[in-house]
Amino acid sequence: MSPMSFPTAPDKTALEQGEALAPRFDAKGLIAAIATHAGTGEVLMLAWMNDEALSKTLETGEAHYWSRSRGELWHKGATSGQVQVVEELRIDCDQDAVWLKVRPQGDGGACHTGAVSCFYRVVGKDGRLVRQ
Q1: Residue from 1, 48, 21 nearest 9 by CA
Q2: What is the mean pLDDT of the chain?
Q3: What would the DSSP string read from start to end of 5-23?
Q4: Do 97 and 34 touch, CB atoms closer than 8 A?
Q5: 52: part of which helix (H) or strand (E)?
Q6: CB of 130 within 8 A of CB of 115?
Q7: Sign (positive/negative) of CA torsion 46, 30, 72, 89?
Q8: Separation between Cα atoms, residue 98 and residue 49, nearest integer Å
Q9: CB count, 10 Å around CB of 81?
Q10: From the CB of residue 100, how many other CB atoms can be counted at a distance below 10 Å?
Q11: Which long-range contacts (CB under 8 A, 24 or more apart) does 7-15 make?
């Protein structure tokens, strides 16, 4: 499947108030994607989407991302079983970031380290990291 063709908003009012999804991808063709747990609200991860990842997410109802390190489309959980079923997808006011409210499958984890959330360390005032 080829990615959907997203429109470009004709003006600021259409971008900020309109009903058309017109994502503003950056110069590398990416948009920030924040995933939170639909039940608890916990922030699970920050990833990136290109137009194909966003299209596949909308088409399948499961989170797809763009791996910057591997340079390829990534279906979250395809190998780990930690598929993220999307309950709601929101876009911010100027359409340059998306927020996915997801139901993690498998063991419920989101991080490749095995942690539930990628944000499992607190930065102390001294700059040291403390695992929570």
Answers
A1: 21
A2: 94
A3: -PPPPSSHHHHHH-SS---
A4: yes
A5: helix 51-60
A6: no
A7: positive
A8: 9
A9: 11
A10: 24
A11: 9/95, 15/94, 15/95
* Rounded distance between C-alpha atoms, residue 41 and residue 51, angstroms: 26
In whole angstroms, give the CA distance from residue 118 to residue 16: 30
Mean pLDDT of 15-35: 96
Tokens of 43: 């922030």
> Is residue 2 over pLDDT 60?
no
d(CA 83, CA 28): 26
Per-residue pLDDT tens for 56-93? Answer: 999 999 999 999 999 999 999 998 899 999 999 999 99
pLDDT at 9 (0 to 100): 94
Cα dihedral value 103, 23, 50, 60, nearest 10: 40
DSSP letter at 108 equals S
Banded model confidence at residue 116, pLDDT cuts 50, 70, 90: very high
Amino acid making up residue 95: Q
What number of other Cβ atoms are within 10 A of residue 7's Cβ? 12
Total count of residues recorded for the chain: 132
pLDDT in the model for residue 5: 82
